[in-house]
Structure formats: C-alpha cells, structure tokens
Amino acid sequence: MVVDGMLLNGFYSLWGLLTLALLILSIYALVHAALQREDAFRAAGKQTKPFWLIILGLAVVVQLLPLGFLLLNLVGLVAAIVYIVDVKPAIAAVTGRGGHGGRGGGWSSSDGPYGPYNGNR
Question: For residue 88, what are the domain limits?
Fold first, then answer.
C-alpha cells in the first residue's frame, strides 16, 4: 500500500528528528559539564564533575549506537534532562553566572519582574 509506506516514512522521519534532538541535548549537557569548574559541582551539592562527565558521555555514546537500545536511550535522556534542569542552574547559582539579562550577578532583593525597583525615586 502506498499510504502505509508514506505513513511509515513520515514516522521514521519524525523518529530521526527526535533522535537527533535528543543527541544534541545530550551533547549540549556533556559540553556544558566539561566546561564547568570541578569545585562548583561540590559547592552546589550535585555529585562530582567526573560522575556527570561519565554519565553524560555514556548517554551520548548510547545514542550514537545504531543498535537502538531504547531503554538505555531513555536513561541517557533522563540523565541529560536532570543535568540541564537541576544541576546546571545550581552550578550557575554557585558560580554567579545566573544568566539574568547579562548582568552576571543574579537577582537583587529589590528587583521586580522588569528590572530594579527604586520606589519612584
């Protein structure tokens, strides 16, 4: 059937794009972890730098394997997401690189949603 072939091709194209996106996410997490100071991981209380480099490196390797170990891919994806959502912000807070508009210092106690609040002075 021609329709079945078109649906399968569309599914495999979507699956390929999803796999590529997950690989890019894992590579981003690995590169970010490699560029951070080792003491920042300890100061943030988030395991050690070698731990995260090994976990994220294995996640990238598993996603590059053509065998398609779905369970291992899922574990690697979870590791990359945990790093990006939990570890990366904690390291940014410790190192002072919070990413708040390029100010570099993070939030002040007098900051509002659109910048510093000065009480109409």
Answer: 21-97
